[in-house]
Give the backbone structure.
Amino acid sequence: MHHPPAIDRERLPALLARMPKAELHIHIEGSLEPEMIFALAQRNGVTLPYASVQALRQAYAFTDLQSFLDIYYAGASVLLTEQDFYDMALAYLERAARDNVVHAEIFFDPQTHTARGVAMGTVITGLERACRDAQARWGLSSALILCFLRHLSEQEAFATLEQAQPYLGRFIGVGLDSSEVGHPPEKFARVFARCRELGLRRVAHAGEEGPPAYIWGALDSLHAERIDHGVQALGDPALVQRLARERIALTVCPLSNLKLRVFPTLATHNLQALLDAGLMATVNSDDPAYFGGYINDNFLQVFAALPQLTSTHAWQLAHNSFAASFVTPAQRSAWQDRLAEAFESCAQA
Ligand code: HPA
Ligand code: ZN
């Protein structure tokens, strides 16, 4: 693999911001900013249990994954119409374009909406229209990944897949999210097998709070092609070997891990250790409206906290983001060429 020129550490922040990148772990409902939650609540006549934007923001004091999920699902309750899903996604895509994201694979949680009587078609067509407009406006490529909520039953996941059947071809794959511990991947083996038969790509959250066994389960039972988070993998050397050998990407989310106390500080985050172990790590924002930063904030803050990270690591992370994306080989290498050009021009500046 062609390595980029080394770039001084003082110029790293500009490089991190400017380099083209793909975002592979973003929950669109997690991009809903408090201001938009209040605006949509007003537009839709939904009453929120918070008096103001500031009061809502003050509730964002999480202690673990579940304490976040409770507030995240409450925030999503303001989404009712196709236009709501469009507005939410377009706001994210506009913000991502400013961070030089050139491709985003976007998670959505349909069960959070269908449970409130919102139709699957309302969700998907709204999100899809925003994706199309982002391509036209900013040249930003994007695709949708439907996530099953793992705290619900596999039968409910099958019902969700059934509701999504008319929209096959409008999302590229499926994922698994929500409360991890107590809901191992094996619970969803049959529905993921069906998705595989349908030609859908497969990813799963595993090893965020859960043990390495859940990462094994995602690989063996779900045939997951990427692992979302996966930071607990380092506790299991045989698993590290497997992930490295099979080049399974980990979509790491540093600020999420900080806010949900997976690591006590960013300085103790294992991003560099994952890279040094030969794992295909990427950097992503997860739920940027809740965790205090979009993708470039994640890059900037984790590089600031881990002083051993260099421009070569930056290049590796961006290169991995394209390598792990579900696009054609031609598209992937076109973006990787643009990445190399960004490094060359930064080195010459
Ligand atoms: N983990 C699990 N479920 C989620 C997350 C997460 O980080 N974000 C949104 N749903
Ligand atoms: Zn996530």
